[in-house]
Design brief:
single chain, about 190 residues, mainly alpha, 2 strands
């Protein structure tokens, strides 16, 4: 029941802060979902829906939770002024090989490797950014961005300063997200 609980709390948080957000007082919601990490436990209404076993069902349920939050933003009239970032922390776990054999589905795409590997499939993850009017819809970038860059990027997006001695490894990637330039990181 953790995913439904997180969804309810996130939607309630958006609802509680919607009036302030419409009045120009921003808020921050960090929603670290427990899925699709183990234990792989889709709720009964999601079991069997993906055709890819419990893991696929759990991923679909995760997508629905994100959809609930996006729907709450729209319902309260703040979707067009809200930056949403959706990403993961690592590539697939070892059981991904069985999924490839059974279904042909490769959760790391064309990349080799798994979580804890040096190969790109273990640490290169998707990142979806939605910010109407700032980040072009449908834009796809292969620019190198590290999750440590989110600190400096969000500071730039909000006009906040970074305290001296903080986030030394974080680079402002807002121009990359907005499609105004390539990555601030050096690609080798």
């Amino acid at each position: 029941e953790m995913l439904p609980r997180l969804a309810r709390r996130a939607v309630a948080y958006v609802s509680e802060r919607a009036a302030a957000a419409r009045a120009g007082r921003p808020y921050f919601l960090y929603l670290p979902l427990t899925s699709p990490h183990t234990p792989i436990l889709p709720t009964p209404e999601w079991k069997g829906r993906s055709g890819l076993g419990d893991y696929g069902d759990f991923v679909m349920q995760t997508d629905a939770v994100v959809g609930d939050v996006l729907a709450a933003l729209a319902e309260h009239g703040i979707a067009d002024n809200t930056l949403v970032i959706f990403t993961s922390d690592n590539g697939p776990e070892r059981y991904a090989f069985e999924r490839v054999r059974a279904t042909g589905h490769r959760s790391a795409g064309g990349f080799r490797g798994l979580k804890r590997d040096l190969w790109e499939g273990g640490h290169r993850v998707p990142m979806v950014v939605r910010w109407p009017g700032r980040v072009p819809a449908g834009r796809v970038s292969d620019g190198l961005l590290s999750q440590v860059d989110l600190f400096a990027t969000l500071a730039a997006a909000t006009g906040a300063g970074i305290p001296p001695g903080s986030a030394e490894d974080s680079l402002d990637q807002l121009p990359l997200l907005e499609g105004k330039r390539g990555s601030a990181r050096i690609e080798i």
